[in-house]
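Board notes (copied after class):
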Amino acid sequence: MSDIAHSPDQPAAADGEVSSARFWNAAQGGKDNYERDRQAVAAVEAMAPGITADARSARQFLRRTVRWAAAEAGVTQYLDLGAGLPLEPDIHQIVSHHQPDARVLYVDNDPVVLAHQGAYQDPPLSSYIDADMRDTDVIMSHVTETFDLAKPVMLTFSSVLGHFSDEEAHGIVGGLLEHLAPGSCLMLSHDIPTPAIIAACEIYSSAPGALPYQPRTIEQLLRFFDGMDIVEPGLVPLFEWHPDDSTEITEVMGYGAVGRKAACTAA
């Protein structure tokens, strides 16, 4: 099968390299990927069965959480960190059904993603920030131009924080949350260190061009929500969070939760 479904302006990856963004797009059933990405997904799936179902489950979780935030929590502003390649329906398409005046900012610095996201956005509903997730000052400079920071914002980290060390990951989350209004939400999905996930990470991380991924324990994940109110049912397997008719029941590899920033209290 030949390389397909890519923008003619998309910069070519080095020969034989696997793009992290295209890998996850292929794993989630998207079309914006190359044969080498699909082969990498197949190799990981063969050694760690269930990894593609886990990837789909993470995407389903993202969609359910943003729908909850828009329909039930009334959030109108969304910042998607490590957005990756578009996969419809995406955040702006979901929330606009419930909040017509919503604003969505997607953040990534992968040139493969940039080529797709630039043509995919729907201003003023959605736009794209070309920035490293660790550079929270740059991200916030864009956020302040687009969002009303007196109102809640939802941060979404869909299975991306595993690409960062503990110090980096907490710096990203904390560096953004500190600027946001009470009622703002943190959505986080993340794989835990099951035998299948450990095997998958070893295989995936050895591929040329891939970004290493480290799973985290439930206790480690809970620390990201310190000082926040965690929305029911808490930090749970992805498919257990407000399931709907499209939710797949999978082997437990990923956990997720939504936290809300509490109002400041007087000392």
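Comment from the instructor: The beta strands are 77-81, 103-108, 126-130, 154-158, 185-191, 228-230, 236-237, 254-261. Residues 20-261 form a domain with the Rossmann fold fold (CATH 3.40.50.150).
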